[in-house]
Write a structure and sequence with these properties.
Length: 269
């Protein structure tokens, strides 16, 4: 059995990286004798993590770890925990609807924030849009404040089951609705749709069903919420706000590849 398997590693889950590193300091400096003594540990200012620390240290001693090995493992786990804490600070759940956990952010607030922070580009991919003049008002304001801001929307354009209209007629109707009923600003964004959604053969149709916002290749909001008032406030929706550039960039690159391969096509506005 490996050394880590003999340690009570579960106790580390309740400790911060700072606390874990501090225990390593105590061992390396000799302020904590080895094998460890509970009385010594109690005098080292670890009251918030005393039970966890003692469980780990007692387990390490029982596993016949040396002080040097114990300190080294504490350092390794502290480094891993620090990395996890960084990610946790950049990935936050967001919700719509009834909210009983006060630390969870509301979808509409996260949506507004990512738009207000964008300086160069905004990509929004959505399925349904309703009352866009309200939902997208902040986006239109941001475009007015930053004339060079590049904004791309990818939305679903669907064919109803009994509609045998020409593709261009359906696209034109959607564009008219978007211009007159959904878009609140003067300068229009670039608008794209998945052309496969208009296939006359139902078995060949697809939906642009993703819901994601990417700003400046640094911040992304992914979730279940459509671009509607209900989705932002009343519906039970769940998503995540992710401030990790590699995640944002990879999503943008994927959408750009769909445009490049002519899966997503531009709607004339």
């Amino acid at each position: 059995m490996g050394l880590l398997q003999r340690w009570p590693i579960g106790h580390f889950m309740k400790m911060t990286a700072q606390a874990i590193s501090y225990v390593a300091d105590l061992i390396e400096s000799g302020r904590l004798s080895w094998p460890p003594k509970l009385g010594e540990l109690q005098s080292q200012g670890l009251s918030g993590h005393l039970d966890e620390c003692w469980g780990i240290l007692a387990g390490a001693a029982k596993a016949e770890s040396s002080a040097r090995t114990a300190a080294w493992l504490f350092r390794q786990i502290a480094a891993e925990r620090a990395a996890q804490e960084v990610v946790a600070s950049r990935v936050q759940p967001v919700v719509s609807g009834p909210r009983f956990m006060s630390e969870l952010r509301q979808t509409d607030g996260a949506f507004r924030e990512i738009i207000e922070e964008a300086k160069h580009s905004i990509l929004i991919v959505g399925f349904a849009i309703h009352n866009g003049k309200n939902v997208l008002s902040g986006l239109a304001d941001r475009m007015r404040i930053l004339p060079a801001l590049e904004v791309v929307l990818c939305l679903d354009i669907s064919r109803s089951p009994s509609d045998t209209s020409d593709d261009q007629a359906i696209i034109a109707r959607f564009a008219e609705r978007f211009r007159t009923r959904e878009w609140p600003g003067g300068r229009f964004p670039k608008l794209y749709f998945d052309h496969r959604s208009l296939a006359l053969d139902f078995s060949a149709r697809s939906s642009l069903h993703a819901k994601v916002i990417v700003a400046d290749n640094t911040h992304v909001l992914i979730g279940s919420a459509n671009l509607t008032d209900a989705a932002f406030s009343r519906n039970i929706e769940i998503g995540a706000s992710i401030a990790l550039p590699h995640v944002a960039a990879s999503i943008r690159t994927h959408i750009e590849s769909l445009v490049r391969e002519n899966v997503l096509r531009q709607v004339p506005l």
